[in-house]
UniProtKB/TrEMBL annotation, chain B:
<keyword id="KW-0472">Membrane</keyword>
<dbReference type="GO" id="GO:0030964">
    <property type="term" value="C:NADH dehydrogenase complex"/>
</dbReference>
<dbReference type="GO" id="GO:0050136">
    <property type="term" value="F:NADH dehydrogenase (quinone) (non-electrogenic) activity"/>
</dbReference>
<keyword id="KW-0812">Transmembrane</keyword>
<keyword id="KW-1003">Cell membrane</keyword>
<keyword id="KW-1278">Translocase</keyword>
<feature type="transmembrane region" description="Helical">
    <location>
        <begin position="28"/>
        <end position="48"/>
    </location>
</feature>
<keyword id="KW-0520">NAD</keyword>
<feature type="transmembrane region" description="Helical">
    <location>
        <begin position="6"/>
        <end position="23"/>
    </location>
</feature>
<comment type="subunit">
    <text>NDH-1 is composed of 14 different subunits. Subunits NuoA, H, J, K, L, M, N constitute the membrane sector of the complex.</text>
</comment>
<dbReference type="GO" id="GO:0048038">
    <property type="term" value="F:quinone binding"/>
</dbReference>
<comment type="function">
    <text>NDH-1 shuttles electrons from NADH, via FMN and iron-sulfur (Fe-S) centers, to quinones in the respiratory chain. The immediate electron acceptor for the enzyme in this species is believed to be a menaquinone. Couples the redox reaction to proton translocation (for every two electrons transferred, four hydrogen ions are translocated across the cytoplasmic membrane), and thus conserves the redox energy in a proton gradient.</text>
</comment>
<feature type="transmembrane region" description="Helical">
    <location>
        <begin position="60"/>
        <end position="83"/>
    </location>
</feature>
<comment type="similarity">
    <text>Belongs to the complex I subunit 4L family.</text>
</comment>
<keyword id="KW-0813">Transport</keyword>
<keyword id="KW-0874">Quinone</keyword>
<dbReference type="InterPro" id="IPR001133">
    <property type="entry name" value="NADH_UbQ_OxRdtase_chain4L/K"/>
</dbReference>
Length: 307, 99
């Protein structure tokens, strides 16, 4: 701490070499995090990038003698605010990918051009200002940084501080009012739900459970219909939208065919069906052959191999 | 290194955040970009406090943080309630008042 205090206390034109190294390394991280926030397609990744940028900013606050603000930055921003963001992402954003369709034509290009122009103007303005002398916080932080801030808050900025309290209470009440849902109709019990289901007539029976035979009973594997095609109903729509569906229909049909041919060979039977590459093995009473035809790297299974 | 570089960094972060608000459609990401802009302002305030040798800049940054926290609470509540009624978090889908 004393080294940091000394570092921040030097009121001069230049920061120390250590601070310069820290700045150039962490500034790259901060800018990368900011770019990631804007450019990442998934909201969760954006949130993580933003958290990285905020932590880097906290380090910059420490380096500039704002110890209290650095701690508040970590506790309030990366601790509370980002967790709130992640909670809302979990509530809302799982299946909501950002669409690439532009509602206004050329908006994206115009936004980038506007951003570039704004940035150039801002940075040129700073470059033209005479910002050479830095007084440093040596005297201001002499009695300790949190003490100094407390002294100012409870004297000069007392009214602003009181208003902040009112603002926070208003925000809390507002959030409760906005997210509170008054229940207008009666809560549906099991009987009502069953009646509704029968009346609709779409799926009167329960939905099929996921999983295939005894080997794959994970929720990300859709159940197979009698003809070997995966059943859409057996999986959570969320998993399918995330692209986490594991389709094992081809594999299972293949294993079944293999098993049947082995059985035939073992029993010395004339194979009932011939399994040709590019053709679905004819399961008893089934037709169609798309599932196997889609997989060219499948080894050939010839039923008449032994004969 | 001149500490004015912190101000340049703040300007850069603010610009990236502003461009993100214009570019992105997901309301949550737009909100994160607003947070990024507020954070960039805070960095500039802290740097100005160091420049002037007083703690007033840090006080302003502190109040910015409080206001940002309140803003996040209300904003995310609005996003959640819009999502409940329209089943979408995209800012393009909330267009009931469009002609």
């Amino acid at each position: 701490m004393t080294a940091l205090q000394l570092l921040a206390a030097t009121g001069s034109q230049n920061a120390s070499t250590g601070e310069a190294v820290q700045f150039w390394v962490l500034a790259v991280v901060a800018v990368c995090g900011a770019l990631g926030t804007v450019l990442m397609r998934k909201a969760v990744h954006s949130a993580l990038c933003l958290a990285a940028t905020m932590i880097v900013l906290a380090v910059f606050y420490f380096a500039q003698g704002a110890y209290f603000l650095g701690v508040v930055q970590i506790v309030v921003y990366t601790g509370a605010v980002m967790m709130l963001f992640l909670f809302v992402v979990m509530l809302v954003g799982v299946s909501s990918a950002d669409s690439l369709k532009e509602t206004l034509k050329g908006q994206r290009v115009a936004a980038v051009v506007c951003g570039l122009g704004f940035g150039i103007l801002l940075i040129a303005g700073i470059a033209n200002a005479k910002l050479n002398y830095f007084a440093g916080l040596g005297s201001a932080n002499a009695g300790g940084n949190p003490e100094g801030i407390a002294r100012l808050i409870f004297t000069r900025y007392f009214w602003a501080f009181e208003l902040t309290g009112a603002l926070l209470i208003t925000a809390a009440v507002g959030a409760m009012v906005l997210t509170h849902k008054e229940r207008i109709e009666k809560r549906k019990d099991q009987l009502d739900l069953a009646r509704e289901r029968v009346r609709k007539g779409e799926h009167v029976t329960p939905l099929p459970a996921p999983g295939v035979y005894a080997r794959h009973n994970a929720v990300d594997i859709p159940a197979l219909l009698p003809d070997g095609t995966p059943s859409e109903l057996s999986m959570l729509p969320v998993l399918r939208e995330r692209g986490q569906e594991r389709d094992v229909s081809g594999e299972t049909v293949h294993r079944l065919a293999e098993l049947e041919s082995l059985t035939d060979r073992h029993l010395g039977r004339e194979p009932k069906a011939t399994y040709r590459p590019g053709k679905r093995p004819a399961l008893p009473g089934q037709g169609g052959g798309e599932a196997l035809a889609a997989e060219p790297d499948r080894p050939e299974i010839e039923g008449g191999e032994t004969s | 290194m001149n500490p004015v570089n912190y101000v340049y960094l703040a300007a850069l972060l603010f610009t990236i955040g502003a461009a993100g608000v214009l570019i992105r459609r997901n309301a949550i990401v737009v909100f994160m970009c607003v947070e990024l802009m507020l954070n960039a302002c805070n960095l500039a305030f802290v740097t100005f406090a160091r420049m002037h040798g007083g703690l007033d800049g840090q006080i302003v940054a502190f109040f910015t943080m409080v206001v940002a926290a309140a803003e996040v609470v209300v904003g995310l509540a609005i996003i959640v309630s819009v999502f409940r009624t329209r089943h979408s978090a995209s800012v393009d889908d909330a267009n009931l008042m469009k002609l």
